[in-house]
């Protein structure tokens, strides 16, 4: 830290950036300028050393920094180096949760956001849903429907309830809306808990209510009725809020571990 004397007696501290941090910034600039995409490779280590006039250890530290951020995958060996990768939602969720861990976030905050975003997300997905998407939506409903032979246990049913919404998100072409809704789904999936005193019958009623709405939303989506899907989804989110509140749902405020973030498919869509 180098002190800089400002007006009066106030001292401003200026942090001198590490050389590896500066190289990492330049590599980000390089990725942007060359419009590199997932799968593209950065120049080899020796070329990067010459490009930035730094040591091998500095280059490796810079690449490690980008790897931690989820921007590159680093391999070793003669042909090793950095490969551009798509930042995973799981990693983004962890970073977001690190931030929210120190905030006072309640269940009402999450469901307020859901009520605003999910209806628009679902309506926007309708024109883009494929037969493969419809089949995936039907599978999630079957696995959550107590009347179906394919029904799974109640705990996993809540995961499948969210998968229904993930499938709609994957079909929506708006990347910002899709990201926000998938992020909220991840928060619910990993952080929302219910008290041990919540009767099993309440969980069963909640599940049955979700199935009922999901069937109506699927039918409207098959009819390509985006406006009806929007209206149904808003009612669905309002009902979910009432159930979760009545069941004393809470945010389990904690940091999420790497081991809790397995890679999984979010929809029937490839990629």
Can you offer a commentary on this structure?
The protein is mostly helical. The chain folds into 2 domains: 7-84, Winged helix-like DNA-binding domain superfamily/Winged helix DNA-binding domain (Arc Repressor Mutant, subunit A), CATH 1.10.10; 89-260, Four Helix Bundle (Hemerythrin (Met), subunit A). The protein is 59% helix and 7% strand. The chain has 10 helices and 6 strands. The chain has helices at 19-33, 45-52, 56-68, 89-100, 107-125, 131-144, 154-171, 175-191, 200-222, 226-246, and strands at residues 2-5, 11-14, 72-75, 81-84, 192-193, 250-251. It has a two-stranded antiparallel sheet with strand order 1-2. The radius of gyration is 23 Å and the shape is elongated.
Helix-and-strand structural type? mainly alpha
Biggest sheet descriptor: 2 strands, antiparallel
Assigned CATH superfamily of the largest domain? GntR ligand-binding domain-like
Count of individual domains? 2
Average residue-wise pLDDT: 85
CATH architecture of the largest domain: Up-down Bundle
Q: Are there runs of 5+ residues with pLDDT below 50, and where?
A: 1-15
């Amino acid at each position: 830290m180098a002190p800089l004397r400002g007006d009066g007696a106030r001292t401003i501290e200026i942090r001198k950036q590490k050389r590896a941090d500066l190289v990492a910034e330049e590599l980000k600039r390089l990725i942007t300028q060359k419009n590199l995409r997932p799968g593209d490779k950065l120049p080899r280590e020796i070329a990067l050393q010459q490009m930035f006039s730094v040591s091998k250890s500095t280059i490796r530290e810079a690449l490690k920094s980008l790897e931690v951020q989820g921007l590159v995958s680093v391999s070793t060996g003669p042909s090793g180096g950095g490969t551009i990768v798509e930042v995973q939602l799981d990693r983004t969720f962890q970073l977001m949760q690190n931030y929210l861990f120190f905030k006072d976030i309640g269940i009402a905050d999450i469901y307020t956001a859901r009520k605003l975003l999910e209806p628009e997300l679902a309506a926007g997905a309708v024109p883009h849903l494929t037969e493969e998407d419809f089949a995936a939506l039907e599978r999630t409903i079957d696995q959550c429907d107590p009347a179906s032979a394919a029904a799974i246990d109640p705990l996993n049913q809540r995961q499948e309830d969210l998968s229904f919404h993930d499938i709609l998100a994957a079909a929506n072409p708006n990347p910002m809306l899709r990201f926000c809704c998938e992020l909220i789904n991840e928060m619910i999936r990993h952080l929302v808990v219910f008290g041990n005193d919540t009767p099993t019958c309440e969980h069963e009623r909640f599940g049955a209510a979700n199935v009922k709405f999901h069937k109506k939303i699927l039918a409207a989506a098959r009819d390509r009725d985006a406006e009806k899907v929007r209206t149904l989804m808003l009612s669905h989110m309002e009902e979910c809020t009432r159930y979760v509140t009545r069941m004393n749902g809470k945010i389990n405020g904690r940091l999420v571990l790497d081991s809790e973030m397995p890679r999984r498919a979010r929809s029937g869509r490839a990629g």
